[in-house]
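HUMAN: Forgive my ignorance: could you write out one protein's sequence and backbone structure tokens?

ASSISTANT:
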Amino acid sequence: MSLPDITIDHIRDFIVENAFRIEDLLKSEKQLVEINSDKIVVVGDLHGDYLSLCNIVSRYSPSEWTILFLGDYVDRGEYQIETITKVLELKVKHPDKVFLLRGNHESPSMNITYGFVAELQTKFKGEIQLMSLIYSFLEYKVFCNLPYAALINNEIFAVHGGLAKGLEKPDDVKNIPKCDAMPSNPIAFQLLWNDPSDEVTGFEPNELRGGCLQDDLCIYLWGPDVTKSFLEKNSLKMIIRAHEYTGPGYKWNHNGKVLTVFSSCAGPYKFVRPKIAIITRGEVKLEDARK
């Protein structure tokens, strides 16, 4: 497949026909999704990589597999609106087998800065009212209602960014308010933005990502001691997250207890070898997203 098999007309018709269904589905989900399955695919950042998405779904159909997306569907890549539409189609068709977490790029400020708004303006050229309606629907009905984390088989904590300062247990995620378009809850903000580091102890402000933007909104690096304590306290085996670009499409931190998965080779990531994580019978293995 060299070009998307999805048209702007199809995107418009799908969203118009399914807007209430999509909103209701996402509103009904708790901020912590609990998944129990012996066949799970975990997909990291896509950033408009529609071709990798189609490849993944063709191999791992949600009729047989549970698919967990870790966020960052739009911005930077070539087919952002096509990618988020395809993911939402999967959610509508397989609501109990497809789960969409929120990423740090599912917010208006990021979408204005990193390309999603510009893509909508280009692809809906001459249809300003339609473009505005679709943008508003995605930002204020879809993105803001996406859950922040998942608990897989009571063994794995899955999230876009990482562990947050003040997060004691997975159930704490359920207390995050729904539909905050610009995440203002400190724990929610960190779940989207934090990164693991093998070089720090506890939490340290991540200056490369901006550090503390406000007194109570900080982006942190978290250390192996934080992971060890969180996993032991909650009887968990590991953490799977996305958020960080990595050339091989994955990386391990904290003595193999934190796995980062990056699933895009679109736009500025064209040299990435994108990966997905396959979880079967309690075992986690990595595969190429474009195999």
Q: What stands out?
A: Residues 204 and 284 are 29 Å apart (CA to CA). The two ends are 13 Å apart (CA to CA).
